[in-house]
Amino acid sequence: NAGVTQTPKFQVLKTGQSMTLQCAQDMNHNSMYWYRQDPGMGLRLIYYSASEGTTDKGEVPNGYNVSRLNKREFSLRLESAAPSQTSVYFCASRGTSGRGDTQYFGPGTRLTVL
Amino acid sequence: RKEVEQDPGPFNVPEGATVAFNCTYSNSASQSFFWYRQDCRKEPKLLMSVYSSGNEDGRFTAQLNRASQYISLLIRDSKLSDSATYLCVVGANAGKSTFGDGTTLTVKP
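Above: the input entities. Below: the structure tokens describing the complete assembly.
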């Protein structure tokens, strides 16, 4: 049981390049999320998916697209990277645990856009 | 005004101290409340959910005041291993959550 996995762990892009961040969870959760975290700040929601086949915008969706490929996988795409998208990106899935409603996070992708 | 506001700290306390963090939220329709812990350059992990009646988990106590729209976290007998950033998280609907910017705690020997 790997939980939530993300690839890649690190990425450097030039302005205008595109890339896709991959996320997968093996906990059979319906809901999945993409967040970004800038230095000294909390997490801001980019997009989320309440179930397979549905996606909705979060707080900061501009410049991003997502695909909920199946129940396990939720990818985030940057079509034309900009320096303002330099950040740490976390994927999460939501389920219940002994502590109640819980979001489980992947280890993050550290993205630098030059 | 941010939806979820926390005192950023940093809080620097000696081992064994008691420390309290507060968090305020602006959406009165908020339904779920959590504290997450984030270690440096790591992913956040759930510390505890916060219930209306208040709840305790070992050295950690969480309180919710709906009337004043704030949440608190009390850590007793601080350990070196408690050093981290503590994120207040508030959920409204459809599973969406809003994170505070976090409060940094450093526990010193």
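Note for the figure: The mean pLDDT of chain B is 92.
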